[in-house]
Amino acid sequence: MNRLHLLISAVLVISLLLFSCGEGVQESTENFAFSPDKPVPGETVTLTYMPETQTSEIPDITMQAYLYSKDWPVLEEVSLQSKENKWEGEITPNPETRGILIQFTSGKIVDNNNRRGYWIPLYNKEGNMVPGAEAGLAEGYEFWGPSLMDLERDHKTALSKFQKEFSTHPELKSEFLGEYLQTLKNAAPENWKEQALNDLNEVSSRENLDEETLNPMVFWYRELGEEDRAEEIAVMLREKYPEGGFVEGEQFDEVYQEKDLDKKMELARKFQERFPESERLDTLHYLIVRDLIGQGKIQEMKAYFENHPGLVDSNVINLAASRLLEQDKYPDLALRLAEQGISAVREQLNRPEKEKPSYMTEEAWRERIEKYNMAPLLDTKGQLLLDQGEADKAADDLEKAVAYSQAERPDINRHYGEALIRAGRYEKALEQLSGFVQKGTAGPEIRGMLKTAYEEEKGSAEDFSAYLEELEEIARERIRAELKEEIMEEPAPDFILEDLGGNQVSLSGLSGKTLVIDFWATWCGPCISSFPAMKRAVKKFKDDSSVEFLFINSWQQEENKKENAQNFINKHDYPFHVLLDVNDEVITSFGVRGIPTKFVVDKNGNIRFKSVGYSGNEDKAVQKISLMIEMVK
Q1: What is the CATH architecture of 490-632?
Q2: The pLDDT value given to residue 615
Q3: Domains of the chain by residue range
Q4: Does the pLDDT value for residue 135 go beyond 60?
Q5: pLDDT above 50 (res 548)
Q6: Strand intervals (E) in 116-224
Q7: What pLDDT shows up at residue 533?
Q8: Under a CB-based contact definition with an 8 Å cutoff, are residues 79 and 62 in contact?
Q9: 616: Cβ–Cβ under 8 A, 6 or more apart, which residues?
Q10: Is 136 helix (H, G, I), strand (E, B) or coil?
Q11: Is 5-186 assigned to CATH 2.60.40.1930?
């Protein structure tokens, strides 16, 4: 398989379970048990779950079991049955299953054992843990567990699981080599290289290595500066597996790096002929369509779609339609593309058995497709209709876009509000726009439209300011209530880093201040998107000496990381105090698994809030940071 870390991208994992790390049978926790003690693949396992809340107070409980094997984890959902203050269920792992990671859900409530998961290892008929049970668990800890189950990261525990597996089944080091080396690097960033090189050399000396084992060796030998050895293996892969994954990756990189559009299109054509089933084709189409539109070659782009009738990826289609919308060119073509994309997504949603990944529930899969594929296409179509004077039709499509995006995208909300105003549907506009303000998903333009709708409905804007303030207070209280659920208190790891001015900055040296620590990188799109909001937040607190913002630049691959960060900050004129985490030690010590990630640290050096990602809502981001600071000062 393509190893599981490709599932999540490059950022992931989990911590120590409440189970024994010693030999023998997995210990049950106080509220979780299973039988038999040593379950065997292919045979039924009975599980008992005893939540702290009385059974009579819980309407239902679903067990979400992730069965891991050599392939992708498979999610199975089991509705538990209530029996005398406990819940019971059964699951039958298939013969290939190596172990199971479990969490329990009831509505929006999730019990994942304090972000450690409930683990069931599987055994063979002789009573020994099946090969891959420990390493598969380590892989879950380090790669897919945090994304799918919100498990906590613990590199050292994952590493110990790998090492324990290899001590018993050394042959499995070949299968898990790439994942193991990444975990080793994460667990011991200062001294991992010697051990990694020893492991690489030991595995590479084995006979009859397959492509799946050889492929990551090229990357890791290069990572360790062993270019000659890396090229030896690369030559072997090209000769032995000319149509394999390594060559496919090299050919794709060649397309990606090519700057000349004509040459890129020719390389793309050859790539598609050579690898017609490649999972990279959608990305390849995206690159070509992006560059054709960027160079104004609309007719060529149109011909490209006509020559690729199987091109149904909604992201590629919406890229074309939305760029044409931005350029205010070829509106009929843009509308046809948007409608084509909407039809493609509908067909996708009608094929869950083919389209849904094994590790997702159908409900979660549908929500993701609707939110990230359907909503943007309906938004593009709605804007195009609005430009053509079809305000009522536009409002209908944009209403669906708002629903699919769960009213979380201020840009879609704004377009919907504009359509309602232009259609003269002021009552509906007042209702919907007021809701966006209350939810905290409204920007300045929406407030302006709200005032228009208010004045049209009420006959005057005299009391509008008081009405708006009331809505905004509801939004603040909503955010404050959410933050009360998120507040925490744990010591922040101390650090000493150099800033762009060459000054040494330490966490302990800022004791007594409330700190906002933002981990970011110059290549990170969401980080960059969040910076206008962070700039506003910095400006808001610039005269408050008790508050300090630190922007820690991490996960950069450039040779001169300081120059790279300085050039970025200068180009965009951000008033940020940037620190350089050149060895990625601080970001690792904070347990960050994706960026941007922000921490609010109180004056006593305790982490009180953690915020991951960026929603795209600038106003709400500023408001949220402000309330976090207010709540811990």
Answers
A1: 3-Layer(aba) Sandwich (3.40)
A2: 81
A3: 5-186, 490-632
A4: yes
A5: yes
A6: 118-121
A7: 94
A8: yes
A9: 408, 409, 410, 411, 529
A10: helix
A11: yes
